[in-house]
Amino acid sequence: MTTSHSTSAQLKALDRAHHLHPFTDYADYRQQPGRIISRAEHITIIDSDGREYLDGMSGLWCCNLGYSQPEIVAAVSEQLTRLPFYNNFFQCSNQPAVELAAALAELLPEPFNQVFFTNSGSEANDTNLRIVRRYWDLLGKPKKRLVLSRQYGYHGSTIAAASLGGFDFVHGQFETLPYVKHIQAPNWYAYGRDSSEHDFGIAAAQQLQHAINQYGADNIAAFIAEPVQGAGGVIVPPASYWPELQRILDAHDILFISDEVICGFGRTGEMFGYQSYQSKPDLITFAKAVTNGYQPLGGVMLSDRIAEVLTSGGGEFGHGFTYSGHPAACAAALATLQIMRREGIQQNVKERLAPHFQAGWRALGDHPIVGHVRGLGLFGSIELVRDKASGERLGRDSEAGAVCRQACLDHGLVMRAVGDSMIIAPPLVCSHAELDELLRRARAALDATAAHFGVSG
Ligand SMILES: *Cc1c(COP(=O)(O)O)cnc(C)c1O
Fold first, then answer.
1. What's the CA-to-centroid distance between 361 and ligand 1, angstroms?
2. Which member of 91, 110, 237, 309 has the greatest number of CB atoms within 10 A?
3. Pfam families this protein is in (predicted)?
4. For residue 122, which atom of ligand 1 is closest to its CA?
5. How far is Cα 202 from Cα 225, in angstroms, rounded to an integer?
6. Could you tell me if 202 and 246 lie in one domain?
7. What's the CATH number where 64 sits?
């Protein structure tokens, strides 16, 4: 199949010659060129060779409503015709930005009534650091400077966001911000198998208390966390974890930033991930699914406590992006939220899709190379092992993940590998039958992976 100007082979050659991709081993990509995605329909993506794949990753956690939403297209197109751009600096605003700010304030429960727009999750987390610092300065507590974060958290790729993130290999490639400190991830399978999930959840939360004891609450500005760590491997924490974390946060005057870039907008079965765990954020990061991936948009929702201080005086807040509140991006988000509300997307995930999907996903636990299964709402992860009891891996570190990822593609399914975990996050508009087909292909890929490593069932 050819695209408008080039054959598939020409495109792949040009891609390798000129295009440096995010999070890619460039030497490796020269040997193993990728796929050019040309078209998509509903939950299927189609590459430049005409091969079709069920998209088990919703794009990159963003196309929660799938790829066929003409209302969003129409909203963006209409907005580009009327007002393609105007900035929100200098006492100006635009209609979609205003309407989206109001729509988000209505969507979120109290006390979230104010929003600051960015173009991405990374920029939103940079903005969080600026807001947190400003908040404590305005309150006359300038010593509160440190920000606590977690290993294997993902918060984006600007210098600040990558510092907040918890990946050592990334930290090794630049100078991280000195005021960000990391605590352990609540990954029972990796760190806690010698205790019960409940006890491990408490112990993992108490890592926050240890950090507070070490650095002093007077020096700690904020704690940032994803309700469920997504890019770190869909690390669903034990049920005991969040209540204990919240108890510790409440006991010390530390702001809590809930990074909802993946968990927000229905992924966990609630509208926002923090609602699945009854935690109490002061700031909320959003991006990705807010526009269904149709336009780049992110932002921070501020609780009244923060907004009141920020708007109480103290001069200009010296922060913002040219495209903060871009009219076309905001129009896409408004259309997305409207579809979500009208179709009852979040309720459908909670009541129908998640129970069905999680039952099928957990059933993969009986496969000979699956050592552990995690999941919540409409996402999940499985650990690939050779030996279920010891957790011995199938090959070199991350080798089984790479093999299984390719086996998924061979079976027409996009799943992602994080080390030796396979992760899935299907669009929230799948039918039961489509979820069953995703799971059938996932099992076939597991069979192929087991065969590759000589494990029989
Ligand atoms: C993707 C992601 C980000 C970064 O968003 P970008 O739009 O890629 O900058 C931040 N936080 C979480 C939890 C994410 O998954």
1. 25
2. 237
3. Aminotran_3
4. 9
5. 16
6. yes
7. 3.90.1150.10
Nearest atom, ligand 1, residue 226 CA: 13
Question: Which of 261, 272, 274, 416 has most ligand 1 atoms within 8 Å of CB, for mutation?
Answer: 261
> In the numeric block, which tokens belong to residue 245?
């974390």
Q: Say whether pTM exceeds 0.90.
A: yes
438: domain range? 35-68+345-452
Which ligand 1 atom sits closest to the C-alpha of 260? 13
| C-alpha span between 23 and 283 (Å, rounded) | 28
CA atoms within 13 A on the CB side of 107: 27
DSSP character for 229? Answer: B
Co-location of 242 and 263 in the same domain: yes
Q: Which atom of ligand 1 is nearest to the CA of 119?
A: 7
Q: Do 281 and 178 share a structural domain?
A: yes
Closest atom of ligand 1 relative to the 158 alpha carbon: 9
Of 343, 371, 393, which residue constitutes the final position of a domain? Answer: 343
**413-428: pLDDT as tens digits:** 999 999 999 999 999 9
Query: What's the start-to-end Cα distance of the chain, in Å?
Result: 39
Sequential DSSP letters for 379-446: EEEEEE-S-TTT---SSSTTHHHHHHHHHHHHTTEE-EEETTEEEE---TT--HHHHHHHHHHHHHHH
Residue 26 inside a domain? The answer is: no
Q: Indicate which residue's Cα is closest to atom 5 of ligand 1.
A: 121
CB contact at 8 A, 67 and 40: yes
- Write the pLDDT tens digit of every residue in 19-64: 999 999 999 999 888 899 999 999 999 999 999 999 999 999 999 9
Test site for ligand 1: of 155, 157, 235, 423, most ligand atoms within 8 A of the Cβ: 155
Q: Looking at residue 353, what DSSP letter applies?
A: I
User: What's the 264 CA to ligand 1 centre distance in angstroms?
Assistant: 11
Do both 355 and 419 map to the same domain? yes
- Taking residue 5's Cβ as centre, other Cβ atoms within 10 Å add up to 7
Select from 120, 126, 159, 423 the residue to mutate for testing ligand 1; criterion: most ligand atoms less than 8 Å from CB. 120
Angstrom distance (rounded) from CA 303 to CA 237 = 25
Q: Are residues 280 and 399 in the same domain?
A: no
What residues flank ligand 1, with Cβ below 6 Å?
61, 120-122, 154-156, 226, 230-231, 259, 261-262, 287-288, 298
335-357 as b/e: b if 16+ CB within 10 A: bbbebbeeeebbebbbeebbebb
Shared domain check, 84 and 61: no
Each residue's pLDDT tens digit, 342-355: 999 999 999 999 99
